[in-house]
């Protein structure tokens, strides 16, 4: 298993390299002069040149790239374009919040989607199935931030059951932390759940058509045994793979949720930096998110290998 | 002696949107305790469907529409789902052709054998597992205590089939239905599997219903044989009688297809001309009539019943 | 036109198709349908509740008619989504087809880039592009185009490769036919159904994405009404008019649902096997 993980990590490296190149050249795709833009229309030419020198943008491109990569590997992602503060500490502060949100969202998504998918799949083509499948389609079409807004208004403001935003680290105060996490994680959950439900349903239906299920019946196994050991276990393998597919959606969805609930995570940082045109921060955020996504894919793959004994550590 | 299993005029139809497929349409036979009986016929004649009827695991568009299946005198068709579940695997078990497809790829083989034991007895898991390991050893899987923890895809074809047989034997059933268990295996392993089935009968007194289209294998282990054609049983006889005195024209045709070991070899093997009738539209008369060299006028309009001609030999022909 | 007849018999696709048609018509004929001018400000009438006099769904914080803004909002959503998907299908699909069909080092480079883009969450790609080019409609459309292209590239790539492998046998016999002809005559028709199915689903995603961008303040700027922006504004003024958040969200839900329904129906038509498996 460890060897498999290592091998996959090594395979990731060219992807990361490509990513680094793409992200780095982001700043060069901007029409016009970003430095001048940042300083405003009244800046003098010397000020612009000075700023450019400060930011290291007057050096040859290759030198900039190499330095940037060296720094990134070391963990130093440079200085904020506009804020003149170091980026990395800010990131380090914000990543745990985003991770907590993503994890909470995943828990809700799986907790809601998986059972719905199973029940729908097991009762294929019955009224329950049509009901659940339509609900899933509706869930897919639902703007999760709308639900979040409504929840926020009613639970947070009107009835004051749950806090309206902000983040409390788990270590400080677990109860408060969970209270703050509940709504935003739920909103992310319902964003992702319909996908999981659909995939689970498909997986269950496919599994049920396998000969070994009919054979299990022929052996006289109890319904519950067949259900859990045979059908669900087999279907679960395929579902895990799907989770990898939607990790991007999870991360993307969390962006809006962070804004809505004033969650001090990477998402808010990213959106803020886009509004402020803080290019270095934008680059750093893209890099982090993409890496996160690749890591999530890897985790899903490992989970799949763990669940499905047919996956050889080729 | 009272028969272990009686099938009486069984009829099972599949109601599809193309029409009604009369897959099993008048199948009657008896199986006595401790005997190995063969069921032969070409693909599509209804052999597997008959099995599904006995175990009541017919897939959805199908339904048993007539006849009866009795185990030791009691009708199986009357049983509740739960009672039927007890029968499956416990009193009547099945061995399938494609062992790899029958095994769940994400569960260990040992677990799949022990599962059957646990489903029919109230024991702790440890005991069921031990029982499974023992049975697996008995069917010839070496180092079964280690192998039982492996997965199906790690086994060879022969071992996969042995695992399926182990699962079929673990509850010491009264009847083992073996549905083409050797077709996918090579010849040496086929012999081993056949021997296993014979041993099952010896050690446990189980009867075996051996289904195949391979007459040679049937001759090797069966005492009696039933021939099926187009959803009906057309001849029942002891193996000796079938070979020495086949009565039904179809059976005779089958016998003629077997290349003789001695005597002259013909230039080409005779085959039965024509093909089986379309199951959607069976004719009113005898179903073999279009291909029968000895057909009479009567055969076109009347369907012959299965009649005894003495000595346990039954034929469906005029 | 056999396709149209099959479409009519499939209830799912038919229902979805009708819904989509209605929404598109609503967007096109907005000026005719809408009771008021969506940007008309009437401060004295602000925060009117639904069904108060002239205003069926009430008014917003500066007295604009909500219903009219919803109707006009459809224009933005549909235009952005369909343009983006069309662009992605053309560009992404084009890249995929060329890459898959001709192979070679062009293939390696292009598909590597696609792989890298795939690693970045779609929404972020769109936002990043807006970061470069600003918050104007062309930038938003371009952003979504870039974000959705990788998928179309992959789909058409695998389709093209599949066809190419079949054609190798024929190619040696059909020598003389220029590769471009084979491309148009054989590859494209093969890929077409795959792309069409993805298109409707992605338009649905596009509408959601445009709404999300608007919600974040990164979308089309006021005074043009967009559903996302309306939703985010309603948050602030909720105390004054609690029904404000309902309508834009509902509009998004209904239109996305319509496209998804239609897309599912199309998938049923083009690949019934996939549908039977439940996908």
Describe this structure in words.
The complex is a heterotrimer of chains A (314), B (318) and C (279). Chain A has 314 residues and is mainly α. Chain A contains 13 helices and no strands. Helix content of chain A is 76%, strand content 0%. Chain B has twelve helices and twelve strands. In chain B, strands 6-7-8-3-9-10-12-11 form an eight-stranded mixed β-sheet, sandwiched between helices. The two termini of chain B are 29 Å apart. Chain C has 279 residues and is mostly helical. Chain C has helices at residues 2-9, 11-28, 30-33, 66-102, 104-119, 122-133, 137-173, 179-216, 227-236, 246-270, 272-276. In chain C, helix 8 (179-216) runs antiparallel to helix 10. Chains A and C meet through helix 1, helix 6, helix 7, helix 8 and helix 11 of A and helix 5, helix 6, helix 8, helix 9 and helix 10 of C.
Topology at a glance:
The complex is a heterotrimer of chains A (314), B (318) and C (279).
Chain A: H1 2-24, H2 34-39, H3 45-54, H4 61-74, H5 87-122, H6 127-141, H7 144-158, H8 174-208, H9 211-218, H10 223-245, H11 247-260, H12 266-276, H13 279-307
Chain B: E1 5-16, E2 19-31, E3 36-40, H1 47-55, E4 62-71, E5 74-75, H2 81-90, E6 92-95, H3 99-102, H4 109-120, H5 125-138, H6 144-147, H7 157-169, E7 175-179, H8 187-204, E8 207-212, H9 215-221, E9 224-229, E10 232-238, H10 239-244, H11 249-257, H12 297-301, E11 307-308, E12 314-315
Parallel strand pairs in B: 3-8, 3-9, 6-7, 7-8
Antiparallel strand pairs in B: 1-2, 1-4, 4-5, 9-10, 10-12, 11-12
Chain C: H1 2-9, H2 11-28, H3 30-33, H4 66-102, H5 104-119, H6 122-133, H7 137-173, H8 179-216, H9 227-236, H10 246-270, H11 272-276
């Amino acid at each position: 298993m460890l060897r498999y993980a290592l091998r996959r990590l090594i395979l990731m490296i060219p992807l990361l390299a490509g990513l680094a190149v793409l992200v780095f050249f982001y700043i060069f795709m901007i029409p016009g002069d970003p430095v001048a833009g940042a300083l405003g229309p009244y800046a003098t030419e010397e000020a612009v040149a000075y700023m450019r020198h400060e930011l290291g943008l007057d050096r040859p491109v290759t030198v900039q790239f190499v330095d940037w990569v060296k720094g990134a590997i070391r963990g130093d992602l440079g200085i904020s374009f506009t804020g003149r503060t170091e980026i990395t500490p800010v990131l380090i502060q914000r990543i745990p919040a985003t991770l907590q949100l993503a994890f909470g969202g995943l828990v809700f998504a799986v907790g809601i989607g998986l059972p719905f998918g199973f029940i729908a799949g097991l009762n294929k083509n019955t009224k329950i199935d049509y009901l659940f499948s339509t609900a899933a389609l509706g869930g897919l079409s639902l703007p999760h931030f709308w639900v979040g807004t409504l929840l926020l208004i009613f639970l947070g403001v009107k009835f004051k059951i749950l806090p309206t935003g902000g983040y409390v680290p788990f270590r400080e105060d677990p109860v408060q932390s969970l209270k703050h996490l509940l709504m935003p994680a739920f909103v992310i959950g319902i964003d992702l759940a319909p996908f999981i439900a659909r995939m689970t349903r498909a997986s269950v239906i496919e599994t049920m058509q396998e000969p070994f299920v009919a054979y299990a019946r022929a052996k006289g196994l109890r319904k519950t045994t067949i259900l859990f050991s045979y059908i669900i276990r087999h279907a679960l393998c395929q579902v895990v793979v799907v989770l990898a597919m939607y990790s991007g959606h999870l991360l993307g969805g969390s962006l809006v949720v962070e804004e809505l609930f004033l969650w001090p995570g990477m998402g808010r940082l990213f959106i803020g930096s886009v509004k402020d045109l803080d290019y270095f921060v934008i680059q750093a955020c893209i890099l982090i998110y993409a890496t996160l996504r690749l890591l999530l894919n890897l985790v899903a793959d490992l989970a799949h290998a763990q669940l499905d004994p047919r996956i050889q550590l080729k | 002696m009272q028969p272990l299993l009686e099938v009486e005029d069984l009829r099972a139809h599949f109601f599809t949107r193309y029409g009604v497929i009369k897959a099993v349409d008048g199948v009657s036979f008896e199986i006595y305790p401790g005997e190995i009986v063969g069921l032969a016929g070409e693909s599509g004649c209804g052999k597997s469907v008959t099995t599904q009827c006995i175990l009541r695991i017919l897939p959805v568009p199908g339904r048993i529409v007539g006849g009866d299946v009795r185990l030791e005198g009691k009708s199986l068709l009357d049983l509740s789902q739960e009672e039927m579940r007890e029968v499956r695997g416990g009193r009547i078990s099945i061995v399938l052709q494609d062992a790899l497809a029958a095994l769940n790829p994400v569960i260990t083989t040992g677990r799949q054998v022990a599962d059957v034991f646990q489903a029919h007895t109230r024991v702790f898991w440890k005991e069921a597992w031990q029982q499974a390991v023992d049975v697996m050893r008995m069917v010839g899987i070496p180092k079964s205590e280690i192998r039982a923890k492996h997965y199906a895809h790690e086994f060879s074809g022969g071992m996969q089939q042995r695992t399926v047989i182990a699962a079929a034997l673990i509850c010491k059933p009264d009847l083992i239905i073996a549905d083409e268990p050797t077709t996918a295996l090579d010849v040496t392993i086929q012999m081993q599997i056949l021997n296993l089935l014979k041993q099952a009968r010896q050690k446990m007194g189980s009867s075996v219903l051996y289904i195949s289209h391979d007459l040679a294998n049937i001759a090797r282990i069966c005492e009696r044989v039933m021939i099926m054609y187009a959803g009906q049983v057309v001849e029942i006889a002891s193996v000796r009688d079938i070979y020495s005195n086949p009565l039904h024209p179809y059976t005779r045709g089958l016998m003629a297809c077997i290349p003789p070991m001695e005597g002259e070899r013909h230039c080409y093997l005779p085959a039965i001309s024509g093909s089986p009738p379309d199951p959607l539209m069976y004719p009113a008369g005898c179903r073999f009539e279009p291909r029968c060299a000895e057909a009479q006028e009567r055969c076109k309009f009347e369907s012959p019943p299965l009649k005894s001609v003495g000595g346990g030999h039954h034929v469906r022909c005029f | 036109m056999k396709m149209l007849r099959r479409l009519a018999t499939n209830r799912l696709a038919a229902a979805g198709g009708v819904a989509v048609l209605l929404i598109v018509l609503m967007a096109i004929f907005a000026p005719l349908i809408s009771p008021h001018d969506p940007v008309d400000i009437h401060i004295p009438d602000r925060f009117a509740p639904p069904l108060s006099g002239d205003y069926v769904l009430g008014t917003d914080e500066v007295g604009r008619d909500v219903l009219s803004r919803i109707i006009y909002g459809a224009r933005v959503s549909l235009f952005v989504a369909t343009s983006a998907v069309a662009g992605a299908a053309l560009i992404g699909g084009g890249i995929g087809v060329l890459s898959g069909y001709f192979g070679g080092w062009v293939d390696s480079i292009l598909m590597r880039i696609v792989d890298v883009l795939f690693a970045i969450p779609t929404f972020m790609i769109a936002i990043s592009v807006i970061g470069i080019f600003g918050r104007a409609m062309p930038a938003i459309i371009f952003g979504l185009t870039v974000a959705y292209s990788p998928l179309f590239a992959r789909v058409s790539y695998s389709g093209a490769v599949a066809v190419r492998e079949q054609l190798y046998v024929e190619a040696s016999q059909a020598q003389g036919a220029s590769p471009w002809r084979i491309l148009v005559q054989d590859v494209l028709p093969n890929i077409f159904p795959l792309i069409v199915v993805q298109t409707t689903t992605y338009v649905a995603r596009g509408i959601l994405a445009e709404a999300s961008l608007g919600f974040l303040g990164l979308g089309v700027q006021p005074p043009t009404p967009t559903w996302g922006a309306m939703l985010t504004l309603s948050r602030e003024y909720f105390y004054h008019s609690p029904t404000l958040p309902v309508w834009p969200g509902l509009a998004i839900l209904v239109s996305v649902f319509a496209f998804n329904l239609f897309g599912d129906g199309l998938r049923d038509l083009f690949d019934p096997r996939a549908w039977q498996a439940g996908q």
